[in-house]
Design brief:
The chain is α/β, with parallel strands linked by helices. It is built from 10 helices and 11 strands.
């Protein structure tokens, strides 16, 4: 394990710089954080989006297997997911490990599973986030404390290379070297001293959970179709019109800031972040109600 300054996605950028050659391919399970594509393409490699199943945003394993080629070097998984809030299930983790082992044997080299986990500890109810190192040996983990502790901008995290990876020593050395080359080393000493006292702790999740429940209940009552989120602090809402950018522009006219899903590798949705005060969520509801009314969505009269 290596502790790193995670600014500008330094941990993930370090992994990709260490692993990739020009024209290698990296599969991105869509929807995905937009900077994944930037990090991949910066190395000269090719980003290959594969859309998850829209009914539950678990991997579409048939599409994933078809996307793997002899040039496939890695796949990036983000769970809990930004932007959907979906959590990879244990069943999906087992299936994913089996698929990648078969594919690696077929193409003659390891396919690395890069697990980006900044939201790992932000889950609700009895939801568990599988540790992917249990299910696939060629797993590399990225973690950031900034999300779990609600410290945006104060980025510090770690990388973990599974010790069961076939080329563990070489991969770990390459990641250490790329981190130095990219400048993602020497994390602030204050945070290095602080981390032992906050391991396993999170910010107050009750606030996030209250916001999640409040916003989800209101938007579905107004007639929006919303993906039930199990983690992170985002709602993924289906756009009432085909063009999600136009939907977000209409929302902006009502002082609602939504992000169109085109930026996340799929179309037809928008992301809403609820990492704000509960009072702010409550104040936003009349605007969401007006937005629903502007599309003629059902049930808007039931909540005001």
């Amino acid at each position: 394990m290596l502790l790193l300054d995670r600014r500008r996605g330094g941990i993930l950028d370090g992994f990709l710089t260490a692993l990739l050659q020009p024209l290698d391919e990296v599969i991105l399970l869509a929807p995905f954080f937009p900077e994944y594509r930037v990090f991949v393409e910066r190395t000269g490699a090719v980003a290959v989006p594969v859309l998850c199943r829209t009914e539950d945003f678990q991997p579409d394993f048939e599409a994933l297997e078809q996307a793997i080629t002899p040039r496939t070097r890695a796949i990036i998984v983000n769970s809990p997911n930004n932007p959907t809030g979906a959590v990879l299930t244990e069943e999906s983790a087992v299936h994913l490990g089996e698929l990648l082992r078969r594919a690696s044997d077929r193409i003659g080299h390891p396919i690395y599973l890069i697990s980006d986990e900044p939201y790992r500890d932000l889950v609700y109810g009895n939801v568990k986030v599988p540790y992917l190192t249990k299910y696939y040996d060629e797993t590399l983990v990225c973690y950031s404390f900034s999300k779990s502790l609600s410290l945006p901008g104060e980025r510090i995290g770690y990388i973990l290379v599974s010790p069961r990876a076939k080329e563990f020593s070489a991969v770990y050395a390459a990641v250490c070297g790329s981190g130095r080359a990219l400048g993602f080393v020497c994390a602030p000493s204050l945070f290095q001293f602080l981390l032992p006292s906050v391991l396993g702790k999170t910010a107050e999740l009750d606030v996030y959970d209250t916001n999640r429940r409040l916003l989800y209940a209101a938007l579905t009552e107004y007639g929006f179709e919303v993906v039930p989120p199990d983690g992170a602090f985002y709602l993924f809402v289906r756009s009432p019109e085909q063009d999600a950018n136009a939907f977000c522009e209409r929302a902006k006219g009502m002082e609602l800031l939504l992000v169109p899903s085109d930026d996340f590798g799929c179309k037809g949705y928008a992301r809403i972040a609820y990492c704000v005060t509960t009072e702010q969520i409550k104040r936003s509801l009349p605007a969401f109600q007006r937005l629903a009314a502007s599309y003629g969505l059902k049930n808007i009269e039931k909540q005001g």
